[in-house]
Amino acid sequence: MTVNRTLPRVVLILLLLPVLAGCGWFKAKKDPAEILPVDQLYSKSREALDDGNYGRAMRLYQRLIARFPFGPETEQAQLDLAYSQYKAGRPEDAVSTLNRFIRTFPTHKHIDYAYYLKALVNFQKENILMERIARLDMTSREMTGTTQSFNDFADLIRRYPASRYAADARQRMVHLRNLLARHELGVGLYYLRRGAYVAAAKRGQFVIENYPQSMYTDDALALMAQSYTKLGEDKLAADTKRILVANDPEHPWLSGNWPKSKSIWRQLNPFAGD
To answer: What CATH number does residue 174 fall under?
Structure first.
């Protein structure tokens, strides 16, 4: 009997649900991102970005792009989205967004900024890591991000030499070139300390050939001269020494003070043991 009396009430409630929903009883509060026009939605997104609320900015930009796939606001929103992702510590997402933008809008008026931001993302991702090499085999330290950033900045300068970002790109490339040369020299010293003189000499030669304008060119020559001396290659050692004397007559290797654990090796790897 209890079931029979309850059943009509359940049926009545089920029948009334659509009516109640139509009257607003069960209406959920709509997300403003779903109803705002494109200009207002972009304004809200930009406001979140300017306030440093990168999570909200990313959500709003993504919704704008989904709702309005075409138009100037959408194009700018993709660049702003990439910047938001970069500032939020999501470099892979930022690079993916920028690659998509570059493919979709290759002639956009701000395409140089897309190339610059892509390089900057990789620059920030790898820049500090070279300062944190601990007591490890330095050959295991990859420089993929740093190399990619260097190539990205070079690509920007090659494509858009008159870009407003070109000067900054050149300065960052100088820093990256030194980092890459420093890494190769550190690997060469690692080989030298372990008696792998051929490998050490090749690392020095690599620095000379690939980073000739870096601040470690003379150290690379010293590394080569020391390696050739250890190998008994007297002519190669003498020729390399002659070039080093011409470039830097005061280099410490010429007086037998290079490399030392407390000098160049410690400079390259501040956590290295004696």
So the answer is: 1.25.40.10
